[in-house]
Model the fold of this input.
Amino acid sequence: MTPVTQVSGAAAVLARANIDTDQIIPARFLRKPREAGYNNFLFHDLRAADPDFPLGPADNPPILLAGANFGCGSSREGAVYALADAGVRCVIAPAFGDIFAGNASKNGLLTVVLPEAEVAALMAAARQGLPMTVDLAAQEVRGANRVIRFEIDPFRKRRLLEGLDDIGLTLTHEAEITAFAAAREAAHPWAR
Done:
C-alpha cells in the first residue's frame, strides 16, 4: 500500500448526504475482477442519471468533498477500491459509515471528518477551483484561506503514514514471528 502523507490538488464536490456503498459501486459489478479496474463502475448509476456528475472513472481530483454519512450501507470493500482506482486519495465529510472508514484506512484512502460548516466552506472553495492540501502528519486541511485541524485515530494514522495494509502490519512483527517459530521448532522438532 502506498503511504499517505499529504494529498494536494483540486477537489470534487459531492454535496449529497447518505451516499451508500451501493451507490459508490453497485453490487452487480462486484463479481468482476478488480484487475479490470473498479474505477469503471464508480458511481455507475448516478453517472448514468446525471451527465454532469462530478466524478468519472478516471482523471478525478485526488480529494472528494462529500455530504454526511458517506459510505454508509453494506460492508463493501469494493467501494474503497473503486474510489482509489479512480484516483481519489482522500474523502472529507462530516461523517462516514464506520465500516467504510475502516476499509478505507486498510486500503490507503484517507477519510477526514470535519464539521458540516467547514466542509461547506471547502466545497465553496473547490467550486471556485481553489486547490487544497490535506496533511495527515500535521492533521490539517489547508485551503479556502484557512487551516482546519482534524482528529484521526492514531492507529489508522500510523497505518496510512507507513503504508501498512493488514499483511504489512503483520510483517512489522516478522522478527518476533521468526523467533517464535524457531523456538517452537527447537522445543517440538517432531511437529514440523
Observations:
- The domain at 6-163 is CATH 3.20.19.10 (Aconitase; domain 4).
- Strands lie at 6-9, 11-14, 63-66, 90-93, 110-113, 132-135, 140-143, 146-149.
- DSSP finds eight helices and eight strands in the chain.
- The mean pLDDT is 93.
